[in-house]
Amino acid sequence: HGRICGTCYHAIVVKKLKKETFSHYSNGKMKCETCGYNKNINALQLDHIKGGGNVSRKKMGNGGWGYYKKLKKAGYPEGYQVLCANCNVIKKEEVDPKGI
Predict the structure, then answer these.
(1) Sign of the C-alpha dihedral, residues 9, 19, 41, 84?
(2) In this predicted structure, what is the pLDDT of residue 78?
(3) DSSP state for residue 23 in the 8-state scheme
(4) C-alpha–C-alpha distance, residues 42 and 18, integer Å
(5) Structure confidence by residue, pLDDT tens digits, 10-39
(6) Long-range contacts of 73-76 (CB under 8 A, 24+ apart)
(7) Rounded to an integer, what distance in angstroms lies between the CA atom of residue 89 and that of residue 50?
(8) Are the CB atoms for 61 and 70 separated by under 8 Å?
(9) CA 54 to chain centre
(10) CA diameter of the chain
(11) What's the whole-model pTM score?
(12) What's the rounded Cα separation, in Å, for the pair 6 and 56?
C-alpha cells in the first residue's frame, strides 16, 4: 500500500543525509579528496581537516547520522572533507603514528 516499515524508512533517511553531507563537503562529487575514490559511499568518511575530531565529537555527538544532522543544522560549517577509509587512516598515522 505504499508504506514502508520504520526501520526501512530510517535507513533511507540516513543514507540521504549521508549523501547530502558528503556531497556538500566534496563539492558535489562524493569522492575522496586525496585519491579520488568514489565507487562506494560506505568506504567514504568525513574528516576534520585540521584534526580535532575527538573534541568535535564530544561537542556534537559521536558521529554518524546524528552528527551529519547537526552539521546540516549548523549550515555545514567549514573544516571538513571527505576521505576514503584508507586515506583517512594514512592521514591519522602520518599525523600521530602512536595514536596519542
Answers:
(1) negative
(2) 93
(3) H
(4) 10
(5) 889 999 999 999 999 999 999 999 999 999
(6) 76/21, 76/24, 76/25
(7) 14
(8) yes
(9) 14
(10) 55
(11) 0.80
(12) 30
